[in-house]
Design goal:
With 433 residues, the protein is α+β, with helices and mostly antiparallel strands. It is built from five helices and 25 strands. Strand 15 and strand 16 form a beta hairpin.
């Protein structure tokens, strides 16, 4: 036997199986394409059961929806039959002094926009925004070559005019001497015509001298003008203050003037003391005109500062559009606590003008005038006419119509009639939106 060959009959690693016989047996059997005899009956029963389940679910859902609909309708009928719910507050007594808090705005005591007075270009600037400056402090330097040349020409013309005056003075002196000589000559030596000519020459010399002196005065005035303009090459602070804006830089060309097309050099303000402007309602105008109470200032940060001050001045007129009085309050500001343009709240202590105070939401404005809706102990509502003493916006002082402690309804609907039963509740217990 040779290596690598297997003699017939030797099994080696090959295992005999019956797979081929099974395949032949399975393929030799007949195949049937017919359903079982009870298959249709089983399908019909399954369809009927599924339809019955769907019908039962539909009926159950309909019953639940019907029950809920009846419940909602019953709740709606009960809510419609119940008295309406209203928020009520008690009328409070008015104190001896009422605080009127109004929005205000701070403004500088002085605010100046500094323009160039001469044409030129900026050679140096010495202060920037936020710098505190003193009156007369140098802010910037402007180079003015054109102005310098005009000033030099004017001075030269002045010198020439002065020299011309000396010439005219010599002519006057000569004319005077000649005229006196001819005037004092014996009669018959010179004629009268010649005497008159010498006098005319002298008078002409005097006139030319006066003209030369006038030219010198004019040249001197022109020199003074250019020297005054040259002084504006130095831009100085008009008062003690703070630089708020700088619109120049080295090399910028500047033009004299303050028109809308001219760029300013600086803007500075003086903030001590500082002004506070308030637009007060017309109802408080009488008290603010002569108010001596303390003024409370509250900033947007929440800090409250009280000052023993008073209204400094008012516009003495009511704004016809807003029906407000312009009020100014001046307060010291040595520490720089306030700056111009701040939003503040200003509180004024005003004397009381009413008996009770109620929220503005308690008022009803109808054809017969202002009214309130009072709620008695039994829960019935009644409308009552009132007289307004002062309207501070959110709170109103009433002079008549309401007593202290009476319950007043807020934001009453127009569908509620006089004498109707309501359910009062305090505003704090009202549900939040």
């Amino acid at each position: 036997m040779q290596a690598g060959r297997m003699e017939p009959g030797e099994r080696g690693d090959i295992r005999e199986t019956d797979y081929a016989a099974e395949v032949v047996a399975s393929e030799s059997q007949p195949v049937s394409a017919e359903f079982a005899a009870d298959t249709g009956a089983r399908l019909k029963r399954a369809v009927l059961i599924f339809a019955a389940v769907l019908a039962a679910a539909f009926v159950l859902v309909s019953i639940v929806r019907l029950i809920r609909a009846h419940g909602v309708a019953r709740a709606a009928e009960q809510a419609a039959a119940a008295p309406p719910l209203v928020d009520v507050v008690a009328a409070r007594p008015v104190g001896a002094v009422q605080d009127l808090v109004l929005p205000g705005e701070t403004a500088a005591w002085h605010a100046s926009t500094i323009y160039a007075r001469v044409n030129g270009y900026v050679s140096k600037w010495f202060v920037d925004i936020g710098d505190h400056v003193r009156a007369g402090q140098l802010l910037a330097l402007i180079e003015t070559p054109d102005l310098d040349a005009q000033l030099a020409a004017a001075r030269a013309q002045l010198q020439a005019g002065r020299a011309q005056v000396l010439v005219r003075q010599a002519e006057v002196q000569l004319g005077l001497t000649t005229y006196e000589r001819w005037r004092d000559s014996p009669k018959g030596v010179v004629s009268e015509q010649e005497r008159e000519e010498k006098k005319a020459d002298y008078d002409s010399a005097v006139a030319r001298l006066k003209s030369a002196e006038a030219d010198v005065a004019l040249a001197g005035a022109r020199v003074n003008q250019y020297e005054a303009l040259a002084a504006f090459k130095k831009v100085t602070a008009p008062y003690d203050g703070v630089i708020t804006t700088r619109d120049i830089d080295i090399g910028n060309l500047v033009t004299a003037g303050s028109t809308s097309a001219t760029t300013p050099l600086y803007v500075m303000t003086q903030n001590d003391p500082i002004r506070i402007f308030v637009d007060a309602p017309q109802s408080a105008a009488d008290e603010l005109l002569h108010n001596q109470a303390a003024v409370a200032i509250q900033t947007s940060g929440g800090d409250v500062r009280r000052y023993a001050g008073k209204v400094t001045r008012t516009s003495e007129a009511i704004n016809p559009q807003a029906r407000t009085l312009r009020v100014e309050v001046d307060i010291p500001n040595p520490q720089g606590e306030f700056v111009p343009g701040m939003y503040v709240k200003v509180g004024f202590g005003l004397p009381a003008r009413g008996l009770v105070q109620v929220p503005a939401a308690a008022l009803l404005f109808r054809a017969g005038g202002p009214q309130v809706a009072c709620v008695d102990r039994a829960g019935h509502i009644g409308f009552r006419s009132v007289t307004i003493g002062r309207d501070d916006g959110s709170v109103v002082e009433l002079r008549s119509g309401v007593a202290v402690g009476e319950q007043l309804a807020l934001n009453v609907s127009s569908q509620i009639s006089d004498g109707q039963l309501v359910r009062p509740r305090a505003p704090e217990s009202a549900p939040r939106p």
